[in-house]
Amino acid sequence: MGTLEMIILIGAFVIFSLIAGLLFAIQQLQKSQESLKKIMKSFERLDEQAKLIVKTDLELNKAQEELDKRLNGLDALQKTSRRITTTLDENEIFQRLDQSLMMNLGFEKNLILIQDKYARLQPRINIGFYEKDIAVIISHIQKNEELLKNLQEGQTFSSGNISHQRKEFINQLFNADYFILSPILTKNGLIGIIFVGNSAYSSSLTEGDEEIISILANQIGQAIENARLFEEAFRASQILETKVKERTQQLAKALEDVQNISKSKSSFISAVSHELRTPLTSIKGYASILMTGKLGDVPEEVKKRLEKINMHSDNLVQFINNLLDISRIESGRVEMNMTKCNLSIMIESVHDLLTPQLKEKNIEWQAHIDPRIPEMLLDQHQVERIFINLVSNAIKFTPQGGTISINAQMNNNAVTIEVSDTGIGIPEKDLTRLFEEFYRVENEINQNVKGTGLGLSLVRKIVQAHKGKIWVTSQVNKGTTFHFTLPIQQ
Ligand code: ADP
């Protein structure tokens, strides 16, 4: 092989090697381009993921912010409700709902309008409104019957859940883009509204804001209702107190008048009785002298008349003595002459005294005296008068063959005595007036038998002078029981 051929061969080899190298290089280049593309894609994906991460981060931040706002709102709500539900003063409620608490709810504008006693809305909390704007707001709300009706029904409006038209209305009226308007209700219906709002530049509504504001509105409503109820009850009790005071004063005055009248009555009775007693004694005296015949013979007919004069004078003296005793005991001029007495013996002596009358009407006598009753400090003469009066009445108003029983029982520190009969009884309407002076029941016996109506009055005075009580129970045609107490220790 010649040199030329050698050169050509080498040249061909070189060219071939170069081409092969070039091809290889091209191949490598293609490979790296693909890798590059892959890298580019990865970059793109990474970029997308980075963007996603940023977006998620932003969203998370926003969610966190909303959560914080909600937590603040809930915290403010809890504090607010605790503060407003622990007072019963309406003004105090709004003092406690102070600005800082309201601001914590996370709104730049707050307005609470509450009806006054003339049903006019008045601002009670105002954050972010001019007074002149509030006047406009109130007048527009009061004119908007539809809105008032919906509020009355308990509807809460928020910028997120409202018709376009109404949104416009509230937007413009309150000058807020995001808002909640909630009714404040009590049992009697709508008494006010609460408004919170933000402008477009500050934060929008967060989920749950509407709930928080309507809960707050509810609590304000309840707190006001409680305060008003309390105020009403308090006022009523004050009116009652004044009335009770007035009534007490009137009663005290009436009592004083009655006491004065009673005093004058007593002194009048006492004076008249004294005046009557002196001439009566003379009449009786002269009648007695005439009857003795010392002043000349007295014909039988005249004697009979003189005896009648004597008898009637005795009755009159008895009547006047009773009258005098009542007024004396009442005015305390007769002191009870307390001595140790045996009740059982006293009752027996009264029985002895009245046995003739009992026999005359064939009335059975029963006495049940508690043997435990000790000797008692009593005015013997006066207590005997009680028994004589009660038993005489019982005999008078009990028909033939009836029964009269006396019962005396120990009762703590007193003895309760009952004088019962099986007589005509006393109608219920007369029972309360029975112990009044001169009071007599209208019945057949009283029409035929004279009486003064002073006996029971005297009996009551004597019982009271012994610090006891007296009352009566009765059933018409069945019988009557007089009950009275006499304290054992005096
Ligand atoms: P007087 O016996 O003089 O009428 P009293 O004061 O003793 O006056 O009694 C007042 C009235 O009470 C009597 O008139 C009588 O109507 C009624 N009364 C009293 N005791 C009895 C009795 N035991 N049963 C029925 N009525 C009685």
Keywords:
490 residues; rod-shaped; 5-stranded mixed sheet; 13 helices; Beta-Lactamase; binds adenosine-5'-diphosphate; 5-stranded antiparallel sheet; Heat Shock Protein 90; alpha+beta
Give structural notes.
With 490 residues, the chain is α+β, with helices and mostly antiparallel strands. Among the domains are: 153 residues, 2-Layer Sandwich (Beta-Lactamase); 149 residues, Histidine kinase-like ATPase, C-terminal domain (Heat Shock Protein 90). 61% of the residues lie in helices and 16% in strands. The strands form 3 sheets. Strands 2-1-5-4-3 form a 5-stranded antiparallel β-sheet, sandwiched between helices. A 5-stranded mixed β-sheet has the order 7-9-10-12-11. The protein has a two-stranded antiparallel ribbon with strand order 6-8. β11 and β12 form a beta hairpin. α1 packs parallel to α7. The model has no long low-confidence stretch (mean pLDDT 89). The site of adenosine-5'-diphosphate has 21 residues, from α10 and α13.
Low-confidence stretches: none
Number of helices: 13
Q: What global shape is seen? A: rod-shaped
- What share of the residues lie within helices? 55-70%
Task: List the SSEs and their pairings.
Layout: H1 3-84, H2 90-96, H3 99-104, E1 109-115, E2 121-127, H4 131-143, H5 145-152, E3 157-158, H6 164-174, E4 178-186, E5 189-198, H7 209-292, H8 300-331, E6 339-341, H9 343-360, E7 364-369, E8 376-378, H10 380-396, E9 403-411, E10 414-421, H11 428-431, H12 444-448, H13 455-465, E11 470-475, E12 479-487
Parallel strand pairs: 7-9
Antiparallel strand pairs: 1-2, 1-5, 3-4, 4-5, 6-8, 9-10, 10-12, 11-12
